[in-house]
From TrEMBL:
One of its GO terms (molecular function) is hydrolase activity, hydrolyzing O-glycosyl compounds. The lineage of its organism: Eukaryota, Viridiplantae, Streptophyta, Embryophyta, Tracheophyta. Residues 455-478 are annotated as: Disordered. It holds the Pfam family X8. It comes from the Eukaryota. SUPFAM superfamilies: (Trans)glycosidases. This is X8 domain-containing protein. GO terms for biological process: carbohydrate metabolic process. The keyword Endoplasmic reticulum does not apply. Belongs to the glycosyl hydrolase 17 family.
Length: 478
């Protein structure tokens, strides 16, 4: 099926695709929505526009999000989810319906500027054990035909965001190759991308390299130079990004597509959930990355040629994401879930600092804390319930609230659940161990948010248990 699809795809490209204009390189963002406190899409679009962000990558094709993007001038990448790949790969009618529902209905004058369709999200990830590989080329073939029918094939490009584990090297970037089992499909994918003028999209995470390997040099993850540079013949690598990028360049060269444009689909640094995940590190990495990209220095194998585009991961925190990769997974945003900047950052887009979201709808200032009149010996089951639904990751090792004590942990967990349940009075009972409060005088929440920390230390230098109430509590979205 894949071979016939590849042949048909080549015919479509030769017969129907014109030379589509290439968008200028820029810093864009990923906008994920795995959150129980989702800011209204219109507020998020206004936030992007206020910060002059002109490119956004979505992980699906949410109608509310796309309607909010209409007329914004922001260039959009919509996504076919991995769960949709099989049906689209097996049915042209399904592909036609997907394009009609998620692309055609939104484009046009005053509509959504959809430039890319991401066919799957990291479908070649090793942990998927090949379950999506056979669907990619057939799905792309069918979607391409659908775009041709809709007269959109010369404008909307198909791409496949790949994880960096699709390629590997024995030691240095020049030895980069694709995983053996992916060589054939990567050659087909590169041929398609080259014919259509689309970039190869890769997600690169130096943070994960540092997190997963205790021997990884910390300074090599950043952009200020390294005391452990990697020497590869005449080329010297001082940061993990350049080394990873050029490993992909080498891998593409070995299948005959060494000049294929490369865009970075995801890259960033989390602010919570691991010892190396904090505001200082996140700011240093993201600002270093932006400065590196906008300097147009390129990499040793592509000097003077920066990536086609770079999409920061991510725009907002997503407190309902799976934490199987780590507790940090919910804390990648450069903004908190309600659009408040976590730290100063110059995106290189015209504003020297980030601007906060405006007109954010909040719930009233109410909290749920541990009842000081009750013994907490029987609280463990209630804690498990609260943290199974709400986000308690800042309480764990590497989080900003780690080590605040039992009462602090209980108050944080109870309140997180209470806010997640939209302040339903019944959600603060916990067998009589919870207590609703109309105000929280122990912390200045606005100051806590500006400081980017969920937990605040008292003047005596000790953490107040009530300071375990999340800084976002009064900022819980309606």
């Amino acid at each position: 099926m894949a071979a016939r699809a590849a042949a048909l795809l080549a015919a479509i490209l030769l017969g129907a695709l014109g030379a589509a204009r290439r968008a200028d390189a820029a810093i864009g963002v990923n906008w994920g929505t795995v959150s129980s406190h989702r800011a209204p899409p219109g507020v998020v679009v206004d936030l992007m526009r206020a910060n002059r962000i002109s490119k956004v990558k979505l992980f699906d094709a949410d109608p509310g999000v796309l309607r909010a993007l209409a007329g914004s001038g922001i260039q959009v990448m919509v996504g076919v989810t991995n769960g949709e790949l099989a049906s689209i790969a097996g049915s042209q009618a399904a592909a036609d319906a997907w394009v009609a529902q998620n692309v055609s209905r939104y484009v046009g004058r005053g509509g959504v500027d959809i430039r890319y369709i991401a066919v799957g999200n990291e479908p070649f990830l090793t942990s998927y054990q090949g379950q999506f590989e056979s669907y990619i080329i057939p799905a792309m073939t069918n979607i391409q035909q659908s775009l041709v029918k809709a007269n959109l094939a010369s404008y909307v490009k198909l791409v496949v965001p790949c994880n960096a584990d699709a390629y590997e090297s024995a030691s240095v970037p020049s030895q980069g190759v694709f995983r053996a089992e992916l060589t054939q499909i990567m050659t087909q994918l590169a041929a398609f991308l080259s014919s259509s003028g689309a970039p190869f999209i890769v997600n690169i995470y130096p943070f994960l390299s540092l997190y997963q390997n205790s021997d990884f040099p910390q300074d090599y993850a950043f952009f200020e130079g390294s005391t452990h540079p990697l020497v590869d013949g005449p080329n010297v690598y001082y940061n993990a990004f350049d080394g990873n990028f050029d490993t992909l360049v080498s891998a593409l060269g070995k299948i005959g597509y060494g000049n294929l444009p490369i865009a970075i689909g995801e890259i960033g640094w989390p602010t919570e959930g691991a010892p190396s995940a904090n505001l200082t590190a996140a700011r240093a990495f993201n600002q270093g990355l932006i400065n590196r990209i906008t300097s147009n220095k390129g990499t040793p194998l592509r000097p003077g040629v920066p990536p086609a585009d770079v999409y920061l991961f991510s725009l907002l925190d997503e407190e309902q994401k799976s934490i199987l990769p780590g507790n940090f997974e919910r804390h990648w945003g450069i903004f908190s879930f309600d659009g408040q900047a976590k730290y100063p950052l110059n995106l290189g887009l015209g504003n020297s600092v980030l601007k906060n979201a405006k007109e954010v709808p909040y719930l009233p200032s109410r909290w749920c804390v541990a009842n000081p009149a009750r013994n907490l010996d029987s609280v463990s089951d209630h804690m498990k319930l609260a943290c199974s639904m709400a986000d308690c990751t800042t309480l764990y090792y590497g989080g900003s609230c780690y080590g605040i004590g039992q009462k602090g942990n209980v108050s944080y967990a109870f309140n997180s659940y209470y806010q997640q349940q939209k302040q339903d009075p019944n959600s603060c009972d916990f067998g009589g161990l919870g207590l609703r409060k109309p105000r929280c005088s122990f912390i200045v929440l606005e100051a806590a948010r500006r400081a980017g920390s969920s937990c605040r230390r008292s003047k005596r230098g000790r953490m107040s248990p009530s300071a375990a109430v999340p800084a976002s509590s009064t900022g819980t979205l309606k």
